[in-house]
Specification:
By secondary structure, this protein is mostly helical. The protein is about 60% helix and about 0% strand. Among the domains are: about 80 residues, no CATH class; about 30 residues. The chain has a two-stranded antiparallel ribbon. Helix 1 crosses helix 2. The chain is elongated, with a radius of gyration of 33 Å.
Length: about 170
């Protein structure tokens, strides 16, 4: 015969109490916590597979940053795992990356890719010296715009007007 949740919780707390000295209040608290945990596990067991996915997705939606894992990103719209959330993937839900970030509370700079993928890209960019190249390009651009502002402005002359010519109609 199967044991009830109360009996299971009592057995677990009794096993713990046999190894650790517990006061009656601690036993009562432990019994309540174990019973709650067992109740949650039982509820998950009784759910169908779709309901379990919805339950996990609901928990992720409450704390969206948890959707970005080391090796994958969980799309908060459908619950699928991806290495990176691309524009094509988000377009299925009528969203752009900017709209997705705003909807789920991500910062504008948050990468919608797995942490390992971002780290690999960062390593490659450093090896290629892209940060130095970007800084040099920005410096060159600012110097060019400074020269352009410093140069005297040329007066623009209006283009010469063309003489109006009439075409004769042939009869």
């Amino acid at each position: 015969m199967a044991k009830t949740l109360t009996q299971l919780a009592a057995d677990i707390v009794a096993a713990q109490a046999s190894h650790v000295t517990m006061s009656p209040d601690e036993m009562d608290t432990a019994l309540r916590q174990v019973f709650e945990a067992l109740s949650q596990v039982k509820a998950l067991e009784e759910m169908g597979p779709e309901e379990i996915v919805d339950h996990k997705l609901t928990r992720l939606r409450a704390k969206p940053m948890r959707s970005i894992q080391k090796n994958y990103v969980i799309n908060l719209e459908d619950g699928n795992k991806y290495k990176q959330l691309t524009a094509k993937t988000l377009a299925k839900f009528g969203l752009t990356a900017k709209e997705y970030r705003k909807k789920w509370g991500f910062s504008a700079r948050q990468a919608l890719s797995a942490k390992a993928l971002s780290a690999r890209r960062r390593t490659v960019a450093k090896a290629l010296g892209l940060a130095d190249k970007l800084a040099a390009a920005r410096k060159a651009r600012s110097q060019a715009s400074a020269k352009k502002k410093a140069a005297p402005a040329k007066k623009k002359t209006a283009p010469a007007k063309k003489k109006a010519t009439r075409r004769r109609k042939k009869a």
